[in-house]
Amino acid sequence: MSSSAGTYPQQEGHAETNEELYQRFTKLVSSWPCSQALSNYQLYCHHGGWHGSLAPMVGTMVADACFAARPSDVVVATLPKSGTTWIKALLYSTVHRAEHPVGSSDHPFNSLGPHECIKFFEYQLYTGNRVPDLDELPDPRLFATHVPFASLPRSVLASGCKIVYVCRDPKDHLISQWSFANKFRVRDGLEPLSVEAAAGFFCDGVSPFGPYWDHVLGYWRAHLAHPEQVLFFRYEEMSRDPAAHVRRLAEFVGCQFSVEEEEDGVVDAIVKLCSFENMTGLEVTKRGKTELVVGAVENSSFFRRGVVADWVNHLSPETAGRIDAVTEARFRGSGLLTAKSKNKGEIRERGIIAGRWSKEEQSGDLAFILLKLKLQLDDDKLDLWQDHLCILKCLVMTCK
Ligand code: PPS
User: How remote is the CA of residue 88 from the centroid of ligand 1, in Å?
Assistant: First the structure.
């Protein structure tokens, strides 16, 4: 992909160079309030809303000004630490399965990480005074972004192109973000943040591309209004039934699996290829790096544990309760908190909070939990194991 050395017309009679465009936006973002908070970078606050570090915010504005979307484009949108790497891998391997069959010795994943296969507007494409020439990319072009719905490049919305959003339980998102930020804080000679301090910033909305709740609600509402344009996945549901999500993803972007492909096990092969276990074993994950505007990041940093409800190992019940209370208050009435379909074979939508506690569970009634497990084991085996394992862990932590 080449970078145009051209100019961007700011207004009639004046052509702004790319460098001037970047300088103008850098000056603007630098004038906004900022705070380090839950990051290893200064996070700038835009219109009292979202928080991002300087270069990606500038890149976002340049993308807004210069990116020309096509209706056939697909944009992956996520908060950081919500399953971006995973959905990029699933989308890329699904869309490109004809020219890159899963299992082929020259599959791109043998030499490129998912972030190289599907690039971020604000971290990779619109960086370093460049306005890339993306016209030469074949259809469908695949892009990614962490920005809130309202800050998407305007042409994305106008073109009607597809958006694939993934959200994650806020507590797991926080723990993943906190671990990631601390790694870089230590590298940069900063004190690591305590998890309680991180949770405090998070609840105040000062987290990368946060507030979390505004980000999720923005895409959720867009999904409700335009389900054919915005697909909404949850990390927890993807973990429960990745194959159903791969099928849904393929259907959404218009490349359904044929009967032959189904019979040949292509869906399961994609799930396996993109699984945490497989991806972490690849040489490119172990030794490769991805160039981002904030610096080169080791590919291994995008993988940590890859499980649902790891928050129980880090958050006290009080802190978890505080985050859940904010989530319940912010998401009440949105439809994001409630459980939906129970039909076999369909993607089942459940509340956004992983390891949700019922009244009995909150009061720590172990007998009730075990009884419920016994009664419902056949029907809801996986869900219950997942949820109740968390609760039991919490009880053990509380008893300690
Ligand atoms: S980033 O930096 O925004 O791209 O990070 P992101 O990929 O959104 O989130 C990283 C978390 O996702 C987990 N992960 C995966 N889970 C399941 N399957 C696969 N293939 C996978 N790849 C990455 C990763 O481990 C991070 O979660 P935590 O909870 O920290 O383990």
Answer: 11
